[in-house]
Structure to design on (628 residues):
């Protein structure tokens, strides 16, 4: 996956994790958690080892997860999380409309076969969606391709082109265009730097697209009247 | 390596063989004429009894009770020496002090299913109306019937809500039936290697087993007790065929390969030349000594009829809509009797119903039987699921 996997051993003896400080959580996870109202019902698609779900549950949010890898699922279930094995591309269709308040797709969009269909499903299942993804327009990417002439690899995206699960990279700008095309309303957009810190809020889009290592978007369905 | 030839004549006198069915080495809950059990087939079964075992202590507010549901050929002796076989309890990998189903924290109940032959009323029991053994006069029962009988047992113990219902295979079917029939009485449910309906292939294997029993001349139309015979050959073959479905190609290859049994060369006969043959014969012969042939017919039939969706207009999600029960389902990669796809269908239905569900597929070559074996990942996840449910329920958890 896009981020280095934290290997957490299955441990039956520890059901309720020791309280963790915010410094133990990834910056994008903290940002996502902060976007969600307490008491909400949330589906985390591609929940990995369940770190975000644990953070959400610790804040009184009813979290469920889908994860592709069996190892990830089993680690999550081993932490007492409500996680099932599934594929964002094929299994979202099984969820009814409005089943969740929020559906999260964290660092997974670029690994789906049909990002547009997945995005549409997120906003069918959930009243809101939170999508984060690595920005392929990040300056380090551009430099590697421009100067090195090779497919970029970064700290957070270390895989080579031939073994990466990430088959649909996009830039922040690309994503904004897609949202417009499928009539999705952007409630909030934040770009994070390489260390997961938010960039200046008043920065222009081109700046985010150049210096944001990843984008985090809170999306909702555009109102019917706004549709063409 | 076992090397026991098929027992030639395990005929036990009817009075001895029927003893455990009527007078089990267990606790017994009796339900008199004032508490009939209305069966799906329309018959009111009365009187009847349920034999059960308990482990651990029920807490003051009766919130720590776990019901373990046994599989087709299991019984209530989940974590004690079996009085018939003298072997350890069938789920001691999961149930016991410090185990996932921790007898130091939970009150564990396991009952023999209705239709069984270890003390709950079934075809091997004496029909009080006639004074004879029920045999094929016993009404055909279903998984929901078994669960209704268990609910009456739980009522008789004064327990309102079970902290957890746990089961694998046919026990998993009962677990899922519990959540569909009594959602408010099940705080959490752990269903392993099972499904909400029996597949055509599984019905086919059961039919093979039943035909093997009924083709044995000693079956005598089900009246073998009276006739002093026992269809041990037929039941043994049924068990051998079924046992193959509980394993996997890889597991059989790993355990036996093509190795010979106590010989270097083939005997050019139909002896058990291969270890795998000898093993299967042993499985068959040891089974017939502890299990009633008619009970096998009734219980396999109950599994065949099982289809939760059919009871809810064909929509499985309807059966679980807005259930507050916390679910954990598990399947095993090499289980071809209840393959992962079947568990996944159940998970989709639970998700569609907005139910809180965890689902893990465990990688193992041990086949369907994996749920009974020492598979650490399965046992760890079961323990973690119960622990997290316990913390929500306000029960003590391990490690704190």
């Amino acid at each position: 996956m896009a981020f280095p996997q934290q290997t957490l051993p299955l441990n039956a003896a520890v059901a309720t994790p020791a309280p963790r400080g915010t410094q133990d959580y990834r910056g994008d996870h903290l940002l996502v958690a902060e976007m969600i109202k307490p008491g909400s019902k949330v589906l985390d698609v591609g929940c990995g080892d369940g770190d975000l779900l644990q953070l959400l549950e610790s804040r009184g949010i009813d979290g469920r997860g889908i994860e592709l890898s069996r190892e990830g699922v089993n680690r999550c279930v081993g932490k007492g999380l409500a996680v099932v094995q599934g594929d964002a591309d094929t299994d979202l269709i099984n969820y009814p409309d409005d089943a969740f308040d929020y559906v999260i797709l964290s660092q997974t969009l670029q690994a789906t076969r049909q990002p547009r269909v997945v995005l549409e499903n997120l906003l069918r299942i959930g009243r809101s969606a939170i999508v984060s993804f690595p920005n392929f327009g990040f300056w380090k990417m551009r430099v590697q391709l421009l100067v090195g002439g090779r497919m970029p690899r970064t700290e957070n995206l270390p895989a080579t082109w031939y073994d990466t699960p990430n088959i649909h990279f996009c830039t922040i700008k690309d994503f904004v265009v897609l949202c417009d095309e499928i009539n999705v309303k952007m409630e909030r957009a934040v770009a994070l730097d390489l260390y997961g810190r938010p960039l200046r809020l008043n920065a222009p889009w081109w700046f985010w697209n150049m210096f944001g290592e990843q984008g985090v978007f809170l999306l909702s369905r555009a109102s019917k009247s706004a549709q063409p | 390596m076992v090397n026991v030839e098929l027992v030639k004549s395990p005929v036990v006198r009817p009075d001895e063989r029927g003893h455990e069915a009527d007078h089990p080495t267990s606790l017994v809950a009796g339900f008199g004429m004032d508490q009939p059990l209305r069966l799906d087939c329309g018959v009111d079964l009365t009187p009847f009894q349920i034999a059960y075992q308990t482990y651990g202590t029920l807490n003051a507010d009766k919130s720590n009770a776990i019901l373990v549901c046994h599989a087709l050929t299991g019984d209530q002796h989940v974590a004690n020496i079996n009085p018939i076989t003298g072997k350890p309890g069938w789920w001691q990998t999961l149930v016991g002090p410090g185990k996932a189903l921790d007898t130091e924290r939970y009150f564990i109940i396991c009952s023999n299913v209705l239709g069984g032959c270890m003390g709950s009323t079934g075809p091997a029991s004496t029909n009080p109306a006639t004074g004879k053994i029920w045999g094929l006069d016993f009404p055909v029962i279903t998984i929901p019937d078994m669960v209704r009988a268990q609910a009456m047992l739980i009522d008789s113990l004064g327990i309102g809500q079970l902290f957890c219902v746990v089961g694998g295979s046919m026990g998993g079917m009962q677990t899922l039936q519990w959540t569909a029939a009594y959602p408010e009485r099940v705080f959490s449910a752990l269903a392993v290697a099972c499904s909400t309906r029996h597949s055509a292939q599984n019905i086919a294997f059961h039919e093979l087993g039943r035909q093997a029993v009924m083709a044995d001349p000693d079956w005598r139309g089900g009246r073998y007790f009276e006739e002093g015979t026992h269809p041990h050959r037929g039941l043994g073959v049924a068990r051998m065929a079924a046992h193959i479905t509980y394993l996997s190609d890889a597991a059989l290859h790993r355990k036996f390969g093509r190795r010979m049994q106590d010989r270097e060369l083939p005997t050019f006969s139909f002896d058990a030349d291969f270890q795998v043959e000898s093993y299967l014969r042993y499985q068959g012969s040891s089974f017939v000594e502890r299990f009633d042939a008619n009970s096998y017919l009734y219980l396999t039939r109950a599994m065949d009829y099982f289809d939760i969706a059919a009871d809810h207009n064909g929509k499985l999600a309807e059966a679980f809509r807005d259930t507050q029960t916390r679910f954990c389902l598990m399947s095993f990669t090499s289980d071809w009797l209840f393959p992962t796809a079947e568990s996944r269908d159940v998970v989709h239905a639970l998700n569609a119903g907005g139910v809180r569900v965890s689902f893990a597929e465990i990688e193992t070559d041990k086949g369907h039987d994996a749920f009974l074996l020492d598979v650490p990942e399965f046992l760890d996840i079961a323990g973690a699921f119960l622990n997290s449910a316990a913390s929500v329920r306000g029960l003590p958890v391990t490690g704190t």
